[in-house]
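Quick one - inputs below.
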Amino acid sequence: MTGVIVEDVEHGRPSPLALGDLDRLLLIRHFENALLRLFGEGLLSGTTHTCLGQEHVPVALNPLLREDDFTFSHHRGHGHFLARYGEEAGALLAEIMGRRGALCDGVGGSQHIYHRTFMSTGVQGESLPVAVGMALRLRRAGHGALACAYLGDGTWGEGSVYEALNLAALWGAPLLVVVENNGIAQSTPTERGMAGTIEGRVAAFGIPYLRIDSIDLAAVRAALTGPVAAVRKDAFPLVVEFVTRRLGPHSKGDDTRTPDELRRARAGDWYERYAAAFPRRFAEADATWRRYVDDLVAEVSARPPAQWTVR
Amino acid sequence: MREPVRAERVSEHLNRALHDVLAADPTVHVLGEDIADPYGGAFKITKGLSSRFGDRVRSTPISEAAIVGTGAGLALGGDKAIVEIMFADFAALAFDQLMNFASKSTTMYGRPVPMPLVVRCPSGGRRGYGPTHSQSPQKHFLGVPGLSVLELTPFHDARALLEDAFAAGRPALLFEDKVLYTRRMFRDGVVDELFRYELVNGLARVAVEGVDGHDCTIIAPGGMAHRALEAMRELLLEHDVLCELLVPARLYPFDLGGVLPRGRQVCVAEDGAAGATWGAEVATRLYPVLWGRLARPITLVSAADSVIPAAPHLEREVLVHADTIRLAVLEALA
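Output:
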């Protein structure tokens, strides 16, 4: 399976979006923009990590995942959650804002969410061994469910990633590892933090690997439908590396990239490309979701503080 | 009349407990380095498990963080996991999984999340294994919200210990003194011709039957029990000092379960290195209860503030022996 590569960035017109996809993409985009705005206004505490520029990854994957698949996410996980549970955007925002109706009563906050079969944790590389255990459990259950774990490029500095890949390969864990390589770990460019490549590292374990450099949802799904089905059927780990761009700061106001670097990052943004390819439909949906998120922010902001009800 | 069958060794007892737990509950998994047959683990505690229970019992690569994390993943998914760390010293490699994932997951998502995970850690010195294979690192795992610290004892039923830990729904470390493995379990309330024991609210209380006026209550984890008993025997026979011994199976959170020390002096003995010890935590819990009754501060006995040397004569200088306890009690009562 190794070597299948989808590349289309900055080339041609993307395929038409399936019903609902544009809605999900725009919900995530406006949700994340709203968070940065709220921080700017001093209305959010703590920290947050937005996935601006990477929204298409979980949205593309969403129809390939089943409700009984277990997803593990990380610090930059709002998009992963919203792609799957978009209808819970208010509960996620309440969690981030510490308001009533929060997903986890405001205890977990932005980086620690557990809802149905979705869990995020805040420590790099920590979730991959846990995902292996979950995958083994799902394999034993015999219903073809898999564990899906999102990692960033920076996470490949953690030793537990390699321990977990080794176990997953040895024990036939149905594990889909989704790497969002946005080229920068907080402030450190990937090439200054990673010797070799993710592909090379994965190959060392004999684990199948795919690289996707595309924001075209249909193309991504076409490339991954067969491999993801095989992970379920034959129970093995698969690593899919998405080449992405982080448009925003690591958390907030901490972007040290030059204007030129930021321009290059923005050049691959799905938002601009879909806006150009389907102008009328896009503008309409964009306005709708901008308004939706504005209303959501107003509604959640007006709620009373979250209460930690069951300890 | 036939001699009664001798009590089983602690290692046999624990092995049988694991067999029983796996047989009774098909959702229990055991993971650990070199635990599969025919090797059966570095201390043979898992012998026979892989032959009997197939891939629920897996020998793993040398990856403490990942196997503890995998155990947590199995637990999160609704199964239960026992992970063996070959030497307790190596639990440090899994500290993130324990402190930041397994224990926190039980509460950080705003509602209780069961995490039936027991991490078994053969611990302690007196085997000449040197600085990184001899430690009793229990104290490093105290005070972590959501994490229980247990220790194997020659009094407590190991199967109940494991099943109670699972039922509690929070991850637990189970420390197992390596020398204790070779000793025999106590049973039927009898320690020897001098001492009897009873289990009260999860606590083993060892004393001379029908006698009051205890000079000292010694509190010690299971791995220290035999040394504490030896000290008690000498204190009684040589010095006419009457002691009782309390052995909890759960070191943290520490709770005497309503059992009050009867001695006018209290001594806590443990194998960990001096400084920020388990004994300090026990004393902190006991002072409010015993304040006004104690004639002097609680005596804390621990290993020296030192690495544990490999050479037996040097190791001996650092660790706690029956004599260490005996002298500490005499000094406190002097």
